[in-house]
Amino acid sequence: MYLEYYGLREAPFSITPDPRYVFLSDRHRDALAHLLYGIGKGGSGGFVQLTGEVGTGKTTLCRLLLEQLPENTRIALVLNPKLSPVELVETVCEELKLDIGGKRGSLKALTDTLNAFLLDAYAQGLRVVLIVDEAQNLSTESLEQVRLLTNLETPTQKLLQIILLGQPELRELLEKPELRQLAQRITARYHLTPLDAPETEAYVRHRIAVAGSSRNPFSRLGLKALYRRSGGVPRLINIIADRALMAGFAREQDNLGERLVDRAADETLPGHARYWLRRHGAWAAIVVLALAGAAGTWAWQHRPQPSNFIVEKALDTTPAPPDDGDAERLRSALASAPDTALIAFTQLLARWQVNADDVSVREAARCPAIVAPGLACLRGRASLDQLARFDRPLILLFGKAPHETQAILQGVGKERVRIDLAGQRYELARASVAQLWNGDFTVLWRVPADMPARLDHGAGGSGVAWALDRLKIFDGGAGATPGATFDAAMQARVEKLQQAYGIRADGIIGPETLFALSALDDAGPHLSRTMD
Q1: What residues have CB less than 8 Å from 474, skipping those under 6 apart?
Q2: Are residues 298 and 415 in the same domain?
Q3: What is the largest CA-CA distance in the chain?
Q4: Domain finish residue from 286, 320, 354
Q5: How confident is the model at residue 59 (pLDDT cuts 50, 70, 90)?
Q6: 166 and 307, same domain (yes or no)
Q7: Residues 356, 240 share a domain
Q8: Same domain, 147 and 232
């Protein structure tokens, strides 16, 4: 009805999953990387658990996961988990297209058949994955049967990787004492939270654009109301936005404002959704997705040379005093955190949309200057103020090798810092972080594929051209010209850039300066500044 009026080719807010309309926030990218990591790199037969409120996008992520699986992967997808243990194993066998004629109803016969298949798949170099959707509906007995399936193994390797997708009730279910053996085998946990306010606006604009309109009919206040009433839950955003478009068409309103969105929400929100939003409040919409630590430990080798950062005398120049409660929370979390290195690097690769199948996570964690063509790495020491200037997510290292703990720096405000550590988000006073963090960090970022690790006086080629274009953004001077070389004028501009970013001004483009040049681009992930 409203399509022509608003210049749309099709309805932009259908609740039916459509790959063309997929909008991946940073937390959705992290969650997808988390699942792919569990399947492809480090699961080692443990469970991977993804939870999230109704409508936050778990099913969409599952569809994307199935589209991105390696060719050597075989999948058993269980969509209806309200099954007895025997029925569950039968369903797994059916999904894997195994011949179970005459074996139905016999748990031993079914398990033997499955085990024979898994051994054969292992011999062929295949990876077998069981995905259970709506896993909160599994009975205690069926969950225990799922755990027993992970006992199918060779002397060195588990034969079945299991992913559990479910609502938050799944986490409560797995806390039961009788399921502690299963809970201990969960090597990676991730909780998918709703979108925040800027992501909600980006989500709406994305769907409107895909549907064919060059103009967003929702006003600024309308978008704020849409976020407030939906709590950032994508499904509720779709329901309210669709009703608002219909109401706007009926009233011939070109701009959909706060009052109309509120009325659409009153008409469409089910009672349970209204209750959930009243109970949890707006803060629930900005809780960042959690990433659980996993994988075995290993000591990093071949550490890079010290960086050229000039570390400011104080790691935190903010006058706000440390919050003793914040410091104690972080200290406790660091003490109990598992080895987080592989997960942290997988997450950082995902933020830059680098496929972990294309780049070895372990190689990235070793942090050579150029990890792979188009991907650079730097390990150094700096202050929070210096890192805030670069405006890129990176890994903060707490403690000393071989007992380091890795946390993702997600945001820096005037007084507070946002980090992800071992499956939890923390927003802490900057001074509290400075008490426990000595300035060590690691960062990955994209560079041109043919970029060398070092450029200095006399160099030429595409790397110099790229650097000149970045310098133009920095100082407004000349950009790249045909045949440009690294001359004295360029060296002086590089030194000014280095001074601005707190790097030793030697006029050479090494890893630190390369990072500073890359930070001048709008492309790629950035730090959040919204927590203050």
Answers
A1: 493, 496, 497, 500, 517, 520
A2: yes
A3: 82
A4: 286
A5: confident
A6: no
A7: no
A8: no
Asked whether residue 3 is domain-assigned, the answer is: no
Provide the CATH number for the domain around residue 67: 3.40.50.300
Q: What are phi and psi of 35, to 5 degrees?
A: -70, -45
Same domain, 34 and 173: yes
pLDDT band at 323 (very low <50, low <70, confident <90, very high): low
Structure tokens at 520: 């001048």
Q: How many Å apart are CA 34 and CA 46, to the nearest integer?
A: 13
Q: Quote the CA–CA distance of 226 and 220 in Å, as a whole number.
A: 10
What residues does 420 pair with on adjacent strands? Answer: 408, 425
- 424 lies in the same domain as 479: no
- pTM, 2 dp: 0.55
The tokens for 452 are 């060398």
pLDDT tens digit string along 235-282? 999 999 999 999 998 888 889 999 999 999 988 875 544 434 443 443
**Which residue reads 């225990």 in tokens?**
144
424/472 same-domain check? no
Q: Enter the DSSP assignment of 306.
A: P
Per cent of the chain over pLDDT 90 is 30
Same domain, 62 and 128: yes
* pLDDT of the residue at 309: 63
Per-residue pLDDT at 308:
63
User: Which contiguous run of DSSP H or E holds residue 220?
Assistant: helix 220-230
